[in-house]
Amino acid sequence: xxxxADRPYDDAPLSTSKDSAAAVRITTNEAIEDRGDTLAAxxxxxxxxxxxxxxxxxxxxxLASVMENVERIDVLDSKRSHWVVKAPGGATxxxxxxxxxxxxxxxxxxxxxxxxxxxxxxxxxxxxxGARGTVVSATILYDPPAGMIGKLVAKLFQREPNIQVRxxxxxxxxxxxxxxxxxxxxxxxxxxxxxx
Length: 196
Description:
Elements: H1 20-29, E1 38-46, H2 50-58, E2 70-75, E3 80-86, E4 92-103, E5 107-112, E6 120-128, E7 134-142, H3 147-156, H4 161-178, H5 188-193
Antiparallel strand pairs: 1-7, 2-3, 3-4, 4-5, 5-6, 6-7
C-alpha cells in the first residue's frame, strides 16, 4: 500500500486516513509539535472571509463561546493562554498553550507547555474558498490520559476531541454566519417565564 504522504492534496482531514500512524507522522511533519499519538481533525466551509474568521479565532477569549467543553481560556500574553476544559466524570484538565506559528489571516499553530494535564498540539488553517467563503480546518494531536481506555471513556461521555472538534467547528460556523449558536436549551428569560 502506498504511503499517504504521496497523496495529492485534498480537503479530507488526515484523521480520515486508514493508516493512522502515517497520518500522525504527516501531521507532525506539517508543523505540528509532537505532543501525542492520537489525531483529531475536521474541516468546515464558512461563508465569511478568512481575515474575519482568523481575527475572531485569534482572540482566544472568544473560543469558550463555541467550544462546548471549554470552561474558560485565560489569555496570558500574545503567545500564551491557559485552558480549563471539562473532562469525563465531572473532572477538569488544564494546560498552557503556546502559539508556535502564526501567519496573519491563514494559520495559527500551538503546542501545550510542559506539565499539561493532556499534552496536545495543533493548527487551525483558514483557506479561501472563493464565493463559498473560507475552509476552516482544525487538526489536533494529543495524548489521551490513561491511553486507549481513557479515549474510550472520553468517547462514552462525549468528551473525546474528535467528537468535540466537529461540534465546535459547527458552532463556530453558526455563530459566524448567523450571529448566534442554535441550541435547544432554555435561555434565562424562558426559564424565568416558566417560573423554573
